[in-house]
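thread from #wetlab-drylab

HS: before we spend reagent money on co-crystallization trials with NAI, can we at least see a predicted complex? here's what I'd submit
DV: go for it
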Amino acid sequence: MSKEFDVLVIGGGPGGYVAAIRAAQLGFKTACCESNPYADPKGEPRLGGTCLNVGCIPSKALLHTSHLFEEAGHGFEAQGISVGKPRIDVATMVARKSGIVDQLTGGIKGLFKKNKVTLLNGHGSFVAHAGEGWQVKVGDEVVTARQVIVATGSKARHLPGIAVDNNIVCDNVGALDINAVPKKLAVIGAGVIGLEMGSVWRRLGSEVTVLEALPDFLSLADVDVAREALKVFKKQGLNINLGCTIGDVTVSKKGVSINYTDKDGAAQKLDADRLIVSVGRVPNTDGLNAEAVGLKLNERGMIEIDEHCRTNLPGVWAVGDVVRGPMLAHKAMEEAVMVAEIMAGQSGHCNFDTIPWVIYTSPEIAWVGRTEQQLKRDGIAYRVGKIPFLANGRALGMGDPTGFVKMLADASTDRILGVHIIGANASELISEAVVAMEFGAASEDLARICHAHPTLSEVVHEAALAVDKRSLHF
Ligand code: FAD
Ligand code: NAI
């Protein structure tokens, strides 16, 4: 007899494992199936998806190590510390990263046990509608579940004619396991991965050249932030070429040669030891057998859903990278909790207007809400408060006064519409803005809240004061 569950979650990434835990907490008999390709010593499925295995967590570990390396090489001296020329042991750096991944992926297995989620080893694919539920083939067995949550995530988009071997030519998987500092590193795509991984290897000594198709840099970010970021990254030594069209790419054992046309239409050639291709991600829907049950996908292969993550099939839901919206781990987790709670008859909710973005470069970039260019485009009248970290005692003490906080508030109601930060610890500072916006705060509300001194958060405070042209320290 086939195994029966109230809820089957397909995929054990941040969307899937969180959906499974929350569903189990709410009393559903829950299973989660995972078929990931990341090697596990015991041959068991590794939970955590892209985020824990080949995304958020390993990339941040490498960013941290490379940041320390750069500080030791270039930041310490100004503070009177001499340590000599630092050397990097890439194998130790990568092993440390992998250890963190092992610890966290194993931790989720523990959470499954604690919450009584059944882990099924295997690829999930729809078989048929059965009674009030769905039959799903997992590995060699068919299980039945009254409700199914698809959380199959995404994989790197590859470019035609550029074969990824994850050695010389890497996507995110290989980029996190490069075993020696390349003398020359080429990156196609100046998006989030290109900038984060480009920063890692530049800090460790590579000559990094990024080739970006669009004429504008970081077009998703606020214009002022994008402009400042481009200036700072170029000064750090990241070669960023915008408006490029990639042509033939040839790979040999020694390296890679990229022909491209630059923004002026001139033919160029870039030789490098390694290439990272980071040109966005595509949803994982192949092998799901969506057609057999009539699960609707959109023209980009994403599962179609309503605002509560319901698909066109009764009792089938989809969350995370496999559906519309930003491909971010915390967005996937929010949707996961919402779906489980709606299933349990609660009023699950996900506010897409307050999902923060963070790019973990140095300086960090973080934002929430709308950009100035979006407000202009939408004809919304706004006021701006913008304060640099240069005027902040804590930032100066840390030796890291680059960047600013920019707050955008509605011109008539003063409600905060967007907050954009480029600077040290922007990833943590943005939370205050997220909380404020969740509570529908006005800039005046933040301006009247006491912020500890000396902290970087005082710059957020000053930006709120600056909306009303009454900043105190700038
Ligand atoms: P995934 O994490 O992709 O998980 C899907 C899982 O489903 C996978 O384990 C897959 O093996 C499994 N699966 C697929 N099909 C099936 C099937 N048919 N049956 C069974 N299992 C299946 N986001 C952030 O918020 N912050 C960051 O700092 C950040 N850094 C990133 C860095 C990199 C290099 C990359 C590549 C991504 C990063 N992201 C970051 C994005 C983040 O990793 C994703 O948004 C997040 O992992 C999406 O979660 P998910 O559960 O939807 O999908
Ligand atoms: P991305 O969408 O951030 O950037 C891709 C870049 O490649 C864009 O600038 C695009 O214009 C460019 N591009 C596309 N085709 C090209 C071509 N043919 N030639 C040259 N350039 C081209 O995608 P990326 O960096 O691959 O990351 C994927 C996703 O993973 C991100 O969008 C994000 O959702 C997630 N991520 C999040 C992180 C974070 O939250 N800190 C870190 C890394 C990834």
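DV: The two ends are 72 Å apart (CA to CA).
HS: ok that's useful, forwarding to the group
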